[in-house]
């Protein structure tokens, strides 16, 4: 199973990436929406884990609405769901507390929304549910 993780916080990328890699997932990480779009196209993940607040290069991703504030993660989701018309499971992991952003995520078809801080075991459980993984974890 392939998982694309997108977050502008390096320590979050490393923590989630290491955890999922240790569980046998094939991981690719990006720290901005521009690279995420390109990685999504090339890597073809079975699951996307993304933050809402991501940096972006507007020249490369002209479909992003600059007036929406720091929500390039939503624009990435909009790209996947509305432009590409794909149903890859998406889990948002974010510190965003704006209810409008939360609601918009679900309107755009996010499968799960986890607010930070989040434990590694909770991420693991959510990923297993979203990927249909039946691995038994005995701790």
From TrEMBL:
Domain (Response regulatory) ranges: 2-131
SUPFAM superfamilies: CheY-like (SSF52172)
Annotated organism of origin: Flavobacterium rhizophilum
Residue list for modification 4-aspartylphosphate: 51
Transcription found in the keyword field: no
Lineage: Bacteria, Pseudomonadati, Bacteroidota, Flavobacteriia, Flavobacteriales
Protein name: Response regulator
Alphabetized UniProt keyword annotations: Phosphoprotein
Ranges that cross the membrane: none
